[in-house]
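Alpha/beta fold hydrolase: structure, please.
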Amino acid sequence: MSIWTELADVDFRQAYVDAGGIRTRSLQAGPEDGEHVVFLHGTTGHLEAFVRNIEPHAQRYRCHAIDMLGHGYTDKPDKPGEIPAYVEHLLAYLDAVGAEKAHLVGESLGGWVAAWTASEHPERVASLQLLCMGGTKVNPEVMQRLKTSTTAASLEDDVELTRKRLRLLWAEWDEALGDELTEVRYDIYHRPEFQRNLHNLLALQETETRERNLLRPDRMAKIAAPTLVVWGNKNPFGDVPEAHAIADAISGAQLEIFPECGHWPQHEQAERYNPLSLKFLAEVS
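Here you go.
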């Protein structure tokens, strides 16, 4: 199993899109007249986080998995990665591809960005899927773990540190695909432009910055889009009560807890996640 075999049955393309002056890498698939579904990854991640989800979704929907602002192979402007900047970039991407409205699927940081977008720009969001979403708490221990592991993986020339950073996301490591994803992430982390920008990507792991970007209950209460919250019961960055608090804060939100699952439910348990997502999308489309 590899990234390529996951995408072998998909007519897709990698495209670089000018999103408000930011050269943005995206993987696009599915009917051009289909409703848009945009997949957003986590902190210092990249679009390959969704390779197990594209094929089933692209049978009906116009899918976009993107490298978010400053991440992956997308441009890296020298400014702190705060949520409004990510939202601005996402909206510019939607404008560039002609998507007046989109279903947003966000994992971790991606969920944070998606939820903020829905609270500020409800007219652009058809639905939300929040997968182990971050941004509702300040947890110094978790923030320090993320900073330390990512910095080591990026600045030291040891692929095992990159593998260790990626393994944080999984409850059960998949050797074949995990090793390939490690190679992709190692290449990204060791590009000079990524290393120069690392402090900006980790800005939300600083207490003061995180505080002013928090997804507080009053903001989540503004979200009107149909919402699905998905969580792994072994998520190392947030316990199950956090998922319940998120679902309770968003009116009508549906909550699903995946057993024996870490921080990447869409990837670790794609066989469970994909039917759930497609059922949700069919009900709200």
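Notes: Residues 140-155 form the longest helix (16 residues).
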